[in-house]
DNA sequence: CTGTTAGCGCGTTCAA
DNA sequence: TTGAACGCGCTAACAG
């Protein structure tokens, strides 16, 4: 019952069994109307009997299209990217496309081979969350297939991309803390070389300027890459002579690290951060989160890509930039007005 | 700079530019020793100039192997499965294999087409987390390629599979609650039709038997499918005349739903559950979690598959069943012996 | 309604 | 050291 070697049936085999040519089998399987009902049935019977399945590789070669698109993400273990991947899958499936997924593990140097490999496999297009700022390999890939950027913009490449409102979201969340009277808000950020890191810092800064406060340089920590580094940075900040009274974190992992640090230190501080995460509503902490639909980033990226694939033969449309909106969610401490979530807008 | 239509260069094009035959290009790209250094260089130059990439589809057709394996999971949004997918990726990459990922969304009826589609795409093998108990389509797929089951066992199919210690883990965690003196432990479980659901209930029951307690039927809720249903079930239990004094949850989503219910109800109850999850250590709840390495399930499954692929031509080895170990983690309430995690084995 | 021819891009086999 | 012929499995275009 396991895979029988040397036995994979071909159209020819099916045809022989059904007493027709391979061509007729092809027609039946394609639902070509010009086939008599009698032969149709014979063919289907033979297909069933042999367990025949069309060889999509051969079809791709003949038809010139693999029916696959490639997706490269930086870290599938981050719910953000798995949601993004689901969004891509959803739209791809609607269009009869299969998704080949690669994970760069945030190692920028691994990305080129992943991208090249996907191109070799004849994917018809690519959606990429670029891991680094070097993007020549993506330029090269664009000579073969359309490429859509997700979550981070292209650097000097003319192509579609889907972003979230990084600046706006960071500004808005920071403004919430400032409006609550905080004047010493710490910034816990990912590497500034990353677009999102830079952009969210800009938003943080802008919010301060709007209320006429200069952020204290000693409260700014950048280059945090995961929950553990964020935890250490937070503990460090708490131990400073003049510690912060609130925190702003640029992504979910950093927020979680900061929260863990506060927990271990036995302290509570208002925390704002980019990205919502599981159980954020039951932590009993004053939490201000920049939330958005990660699936939607994937869906939009897939739509842009599909659109380009469908207009392959005409003039390529001008490159587009889509932005997915953010909104701020506030969770209160349980001591506030009850344990429920405090709904909030801007 | 975008994909130039009608321009994808072939080996022939490269050969023309390098003034050799396509065959020689093929040899150069394959690192075939029998090529003069001079021509090698000319060929590589031409490859660079044209941005040539071998057509993997054509190679697959000729060589009879796509270099891809298929992975079907039920819910990529669940960190458990994205970790599993990462584990698969890791091992696949080591062996030069690419992973094509499909998400069944826990809809058992969608699974057959996903599996068939992957087979059509000439994947060399499949790793499947089966969504339902109907598995004929998987039997059919096994006629084409080896199939490894992950997280849930095959039903009447003779093939490899990787499981976690469902029974053992559930028994152990439940035993912890019972050892703490609880006699009314509620069971919040996923559908009993799922192997994991049944198995974990068995473990729950066994732990009770071992201390001579008969579980109260009114405290057993099965068929929970997500965090929301678990939350409702928990609230319902809490409102019963004779409510539970502790909870056992069969997976991460159910645990989270239960925790949310407790939070909303303003109550605290010891919770035990299968699967670890982010921030479980900072909730300040008495939490007993059955933890294990989800990546490892993927890695082991991939190893089993690769092993079969490598022995394709010999007699297929007898089917194997691998089990990934679990261990119990206990987090204390902050009122206990300090806010840190209480490390525990047992 | 059905079959034959040809070729998608590549690599194995054989010959030069 | 290099090239020509052939075929992997399938299907568009043309017979019949």
Automatic annotation (TrEMBL), chains A, B:
GO terms for molecular function: DNA-binding transcription factor activity; transcription cis-regulatory region binding. It comes from the Bacteria. It comes from Streptomyces parvulus. CDD domains: HTH_LacI, PBP1_LacI_sugar_binding-like. This is LacI family transcriptional regulator.
